[in-house]
């Protein structure tokens, strides 16, 4: 929609029709200047609060995204820690078995040496009696 009469009116042709209305509005503004000034200040404060709140909402959204990213990273780290623990347990068992094999081989060699020494001593001294 356009301005209606204002679009087709000649210059100053609407003064009679709108002059009294404009005069009444101007008088109201002059009579209520303090109220209008307070209203302007309140509107400015509302705009400022609105801007601050929009900024806070943006920050909250960013934090939400950061928390989501952090939660994902935490989940990945937990999975990696479990895999590391499992691998560590497997390696510890493998090393224990390897260590036991070495101990058994050394014990076997010692038993064979003791048996050889005992047989050579007994064979030389006739240990049957």
TrEMBL record:
Q: According to Swiss-Prot or TrEMBL, what is its membrane topology?
A: Single-pass type IV membrane protein
Keyword Nucleotide-binding assigned: no
Q: Give the matching Pfam families.
A: Synaptobrevin
| One cellular-component annotation, GO | early endosome membrane
Record keywords:
Cell membrane, Coiled coil, Endosome, Membrane, Protein transport, Transmembrane, Transmembrane helix, Transport
Spell out where the chain crosses the membrane: 102-121
Intracellular or extracellular location(s): Cell membrane; Early endosome membrane
Classification via CDD domains: R-SNARE (cd15843)
Which GO terms of type biological process are on file? protein transport; vesicle-mediated transport
Q: Does the keyword Transmembrane helix apply?
A: yes
* Principal localisation: membrane
**Residue limits of the V-SNARE coiled-coil homology domain?**
38-98
Q: Which family does it belong to?
A: Belongs to the synaptobrevin family.
Q: What is its biological role?
A: Involved in the targeting and/or fusion of transport vesicles to their target membrane.
What name does UniProt use for this protein?
SNARE PROTEINS
């Amino acid at each position: 929609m356009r301005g209606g009469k204002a679009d087709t009116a000649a210059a100053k042709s609407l003064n009679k029709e709108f002059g009294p209305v404009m005069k009444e509005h101007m008088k109201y503004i002059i009579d209520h200047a303090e109220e209008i000034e307070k209203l302007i200040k309140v509107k400015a404060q509302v705009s400022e609060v609105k801007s601050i709140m929009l900024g806070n909402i943006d920050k909250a959204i960013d934090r939400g995204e950061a928390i989501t990213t952090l939660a994902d990273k935490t989940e990945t780290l937990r999975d990696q820690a479990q895999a590391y623990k499992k691998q560590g347990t497997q390696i510890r068992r493998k090393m224990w078995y390897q260590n036991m094999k070495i101990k058994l081989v050394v014990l076997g060699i010692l038993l064979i040496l003791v048996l050889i020494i005992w047989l050579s001593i007994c064979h030389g001294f006739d240990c049957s009696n």
